[in-house]
Amino acid sequence: MKYSRLTVLAICALAIVGLLIVNTVALVALLGIASDDESPSSFSYDANEFVLPDSNARIYSEKEISQLNDRDLSIAINEIYARHGLIFNDPDLSAYFEACSWYRPSLTYDDFESEVQFNKVEQQNVVTLAAERDNRNL
Asked: How many Å apart are CA 83 and CA 71, to the nearest integer?
């Protein structure tokens, strides 16, 4: 069966558009690109994973931190505290970390302040994360 040149071009164009759509969807899923309507108070993804898995052992660069969306930035800051057992007053953060298998709430804020000392890596990561949060006016 022989197709006209116009038909072949139309089929190729549709195939290219289809591939672009599939690649875009895959890229969005891979990079975790968030929509503008997400707010830090709506944590809705798998809470058993760390945003910054090594924030207690590796200093993250400003570039790495700047690539986090607002929600992940908020979680990343607070997961350093959560690792040490801080009990969160914020209901959204509390619910988020309660869903994490690794989270063991044990210290109120006052107890936390007097009993917990971050290591140098955690201290630097908190400073870098907070600076990014402040730059975004969050």
From this structure: 18
Q: Which residues fall within 8 angstroms of residue 64, CB to CB, at 6 or more apart? A: none
Residue length of the chain: 138
Model pLDDT for residues 93-122, shown as the tens digit of each residue: 999 999 999 999 999 999 999 999 999 999
Every domain of the chain and the residues it spans: 1-33, 62-135
Question: Can you read off the two tokens belonging to residue 45?
Answer: 């993804």
The CA-based dihedral angle spanning residues 6, 8, 13, 16, taken in that order and rounded to the nearest 10 degrees: -170
In this structure, whether the domain defined by 62-135 belongs to CATH 1.20.58.1690 is answered with yes
110 burial via Cβ count (<10 Å: 0-12, 13-18, 19+): exposed
pTM of the model: 0.65
- The CB-side HSE value for 104 (13 A sphere, CA atoms) comes to 2
Cβ atoms of 52 and 79 closer than 8 Å: yes
